[in-house]
Specification:
The protein is of the alpha+beta class and about 400 residues long. Helix content is about 30%, strand content about 30%. Strands 2-1-4-5-6-7-8-9 form an 8-stranded antiparallel sheet. Strands 10-15-16-3-17-18 form a 6-stranded mixed sheet. Strands 11, 12, 13 and 14 form a 4-stranded antiparallel sheet that branches.
């Protein structure tokens, strides 16, 4: 499944913002304060609203009045247009309002359009805890078939309907979309969490903070040796001195990452190697996961990394997207953008206190600037980088 468009209304800086024709790899740029972090927070909000509930997700962001765009009363609206596994374009719309001081699901719709001119089928249509869902989903699109709807009542008006309905096989598309969101990975990687030794245990996927990197490395080594060897090969090629990485168990049942530098006889444990080495290894462990996340969102991956690694890192993100995981990345780095393509770049501009999104490939001015020189320099001339001059 791939997200093809995202529409955000009344969510902080995004009073009315659209990102359309999204590619598998989307790179977001913009000046400080233009809304890059807010955009990534939209993904986190949707995941938290599903795994917990809307009231909890809003509360974590300071409450409804802090979350809704300044001067607006709501509702907050997030619309995701995605291509489901059958190849059809579906739309999920979530509206959030406040009722007696508590955030509730004002409206929740999951729909398909039947053909180019047909009316859309609302597979899920709920408002404030009550609604209907289509039970003959398998017959969708067949001539003469009418929708068979069943009414449902949720226990809590702040719970998403797709959370409950997505548990049942009869609602295949609902289940697919629920699984899509549940398996999003919005990175919140912290070097300090990745350095200490970890409790021995089992972990197949890197956590958002990277604190289980030793367990995941051990899992790859024992169960997917080809991928583990690929990670080591890239490390040895691109990180000076690193010839080997291992997850070493200790006597007290913990795992420690050890990095072998070819210039020294004894390996260094993780706490003594550079931030850039740890972070690059973590990104590679994440990107060579045997089961790619349907969406991977990473803010400013260039932090702590060697500039000469960034061009290659773009290629790794792009390869990950080709293998099935859609990628969103924000950056301030001209070195990172040197590996980007114009059609992958969207830039955020704050005007009148609110943010709009533009696609770089649709800007004739930007296309002409790129033709005259390098991509980062062209973006700098458009005012998208602060403190960085043309290269």
């Amino acid at each position: 499944m791939q997200i093809e468009a995202l529409e955000i209304r009344n969510y902080r800086l995004f009073r009315d913002t659209r990102l359309t024709d999204l590619p598998r790899l989307t790179i977001v740029v913009g000046a400080n304060g233009s809304g890059k972090s807010t955009l990534f927070d939209v993904f986190s909000f949707l995941k938290e609203a599903l795994t917990q509930n809307v009231a909890s997700a809003v509360s974590r962001r300071g409450g409804f009045r802090e979350l809704v765009s300044r001067g607006e009363t709501g509702p907050i609206s997030i619309t995701v247009k995605f291509r489901e596994s059958g190849g059809r374009l579906a739309t999920y719309q979530l509206e959030i309002a406040e009722d007696a001081g508590r955030p509730v699901v004002h409206r929740e719709i999951l729909k398909y359009r039947r053909g180019l001119n047909g009316q859309p089928w609302h597979f899920v249509d709920f408002a404030r805890g009550r609604g209907t869902a289509i039970t003959n989903e398998a017959a969708y699109g067949q001539e003469g078939v009418e929708a068979d709807r069943k009414e449902h009542v949720l226990d809590d008006p702040s719970v998403l309907a797709i959370k409950g309905l997505g548990q049942f096989k009869e609602f295949r598309v609902v289940a697919e979309f629920r699984s899509l969101i549940e398996n999003w990975h919005i990175s919140d990687f912290h070097i300090s969490d990745a350095r200490p030794s970890s409790e021995a245990g089992y972990a197949e996927h890197l956590s958002t903070r990277g604190d289980n990197i030793a367990q995941v490395a051990q899992y790859l080594y024992e169960n997917h040796r080809d991928r583990f060897n690929r990670v080591l090969h890239i490390m040895s090629e691109r990180v000076p001195g690193v010839s080997r990485v291992e997850a070493k168990p200790t006597e007290d049942g913990r795992l420690v990452l050890r990095f072998q530098d070819g210039s020294f006889r004894d390996p260094f444990i993780a706490r003594y190697v550079s931030d850039g080495t740890i972070k690059m290894f973590a990104y590679l462990v994440l990107l060579y996961d045997p089961k790619p996340h349907p969406l991977l969102a990473v803010e400013e991956p260039e932090n702590q990394l060697y500039p000469e690694l960034l061009h290659e890192l773009v290629e790794e993100f792009r390869d990950y997207a080709r293998r099935g995981g859609q990628v969103f990345v924000s950056t301030h780095s001209p070195e990172f953008l040197n590996g980007a393509r114009l059609e992958e770049i969207y830039w955020l501009v704050k005007e009148g206190g609110f943010t709009t999104a533009r696609r770089a490939s649709e800007s004739e001015t930007l296309r002409n600037l790129v033709a005259e020189g390098d991509l980062p320099g062209a973006l700098w001339k458009q005012g998208l980088f602060e403190g960085i001059g043309p290269r």
